[in-house]
Every structure is written in structure tokens, then in C-alpha cells.
Design goal:
It contains 4 helices and 4 strands; from the N terminus they run βαββααβα. By secondary structure, the chain is an alpha+beta fold.
Length: about 100
């Protein structure tokens, strides 16, 4: 698995909605919420347990954070298979072209 990071700038009223959609993506392993000055408010490890019943209180906490500031940066840690690009290329090159 290859890990990479993505930064998303959001306003306070979109914070909870953004976090919720990221959790449902499936390839997100951690979400970090920072304020405009770069201070980390919360780090959320995304596991199977978080997606279940534990996610509701976390989303409520994220909603409370949204009231504290106008702008946030959501740092998203994602994973993807390291060999995904090579496997697809190898499969297509083995197929004869008519």
C-alpha cells in the first residue's frame, strides 16, 4: 500500500459535511483538522470501529469545532495499492491488438 496526503481548505459550515464524505470514501486512513494558523485541533484515525457507532460522537465534535473558526485545512491520509498502475499496464500490453 502506498500512503499519500491531500489538503482540503474548507469553511466552518462545510467542515462536518466534508469529514463525513471523506470517511465514506473507504481509502482514507486518517483525517487531521487544522485551523488557519496550522494548529492541529483533532486527528481522527479512520478504522472500522470509527465507521460504526463511534463515528457519531466524532462527527458531533467536528461540528463543535466548526463553530470555533471560519476556515480549516483538512489533511487527509489515504492509501492505494502500490502496484495498481503497473498491473493495469502489464495486463493491457499482453493483449494483442487486432
Amino acid at each position: 500500500m502506498k500512503t499519500f496526503f491531500e489538503e482540503i481548505k474548507v469553511t466552518g459550515h462545510k467542515l462536518a459535511e466534508t469529514v463525513e464524505s471523506l470517511v465514506h470514501e473507504g481509502n482514507v486512513t486518517r483525517i487531521i483538522i487544522r485551523n488557519e494558523q496550522g494548529h492541529t485541533f483533532i486527528e481522527i484515525p479512520i478504522t472500522v470501529a470509527v465507521i460504526g457507532a463511534v463515528f457519531a460522537p466524532i462527527l458531533a465534535a467536528v461540528g463543535a469545532l466548526a463553530a470555533m473558526a471560519a476556515h480549516f485545512t483538512v489533511v487527509v491520509e489515504k492509501t492505494r495499492p502500490a502496484e495498481a498502475g503497473k498491473t493495469a499496464s502489464a495486463a493491457s500490453s499482453d493483449t494483442p491488438v487486432a
